[in-house]
Amino acid sequence: MKILVADDSSFHRLMLLRMLEAWGYEVVLAADGHEAQRILDTDDSPQLAILDCMMPGVTGLELCEQIRARKQVYVYTILVSSADHDSDVLKGFELGADDYLCKPFKEIELRTRLKVGERIIRSKEEVADAHEAMKFEASHDSLLRIWNRRAITDLLIKELNRARRSQAPLSVFIADLDFFQRVNDSCGHLAGDDVLRFAADRTSSAVRDYDHVGRYGDDEFLAVLPSSTAKAAREVAERVRKAIGAEPFANDGKMTFSIGVSQWHSGQDVHGLLRNAEMALHRAKQSGRNRVEVGTQESPNEDVGDAKNSTSKRGRIRRSGLDQPLQVQIFQRGKLTLIHGRMRDISEDGMGAEISCSLHKNDHVTLTFSLDDGQECTVPAVVQQCQGFRCGFEFVSIHTPLRESIARMCQ
Predict the structure, then answer these.
(1) Which fold has domain 149-294?
(2) Domains of the chain: which residue ranges?
(3) pLDDT tens, position by position, 205-252
(4) Residue 27, φ and ψ in degrees, nearest 5
């Protein structure tokens, strides 16, 4: 371990140098406080320091105070003084010293104090490592070791705020594995986990160093691309798409990505930016998969429902901009659960909504809502997509009068 000896006495510096090197330490010498300051400011500064209390320029007491004020790498400091006045000892500890020795001192006394210092330094390093490990686990997906949904969304919000301040471009893309469910169904979930790890690795390797990649859904990835226009983001997305399909991940099997790109526009919030990418992803799926689509600019006031699935699959007209109460009933663990939400759009085939909790794709639910004429409706439906609290529902069955009422509402 490296140790700093700062003392204006050449006799004491030489004595400590020989003693400490014999004990296996790497010793760095300083003849005054200013030289000690420069050494402590280096990237590879010592973590142990023996400081003479009274040195020209900057005293050992002042150095202790500066070391504690920095709050960077912990330095275990031992003050050495020829005076043993209680007031001097107390002042040294008040300014941040870890230990105090009076000259002359015995070798065994110094060596014991240094061993205590080493033990404390290692303990602090272990605590710091454990703290970093906990931070990593809290912000990363446990399977894929990339940012989890909460962390990647937080990063997107930070980048969007930075883009607003600087008026710099910002883009995102959402990448979805094509036919991923077939892998789980035919090969099992362990094989599915291998596919997800393969996709996460290829995606992270294909983006730029300053881009962020996180898990957005079960088999979806969100990439945040600072300082990127839609054109530049599309180029990155194409590189990711090609990287996924370029080589087999196992047993000559290949996967493909459908990707939706969206560029942030002034006045647009996070939900609008992500919704635009989701709509582009939906177009990529509908256009044959294994392709990249770029979202078009949308109005900042557009509804925040799940437009990806609330748009009718048979070309029916969709009524947008709704904000009406919605009740969702679902059986969970054998118990009927009631979830409250708000309708955002509706067509004859389904609706987009914001609800108070996240659901899973293909969950069967019962929706209760009112139309413009006050007619209360209860309709069985299935979850087609759920991103966070934004869900798209497809009606399972709907009687003709109600379908006609919704059609009139959408005109």
Answers:
(1) Alpha-Beta Plaits (3.30.70)
(2) 2-137, 149-294, 307-410
(3) 999 999 999 999 889 999 999 999 999 999 999 999 999 988 766 555
(4) -105, 135
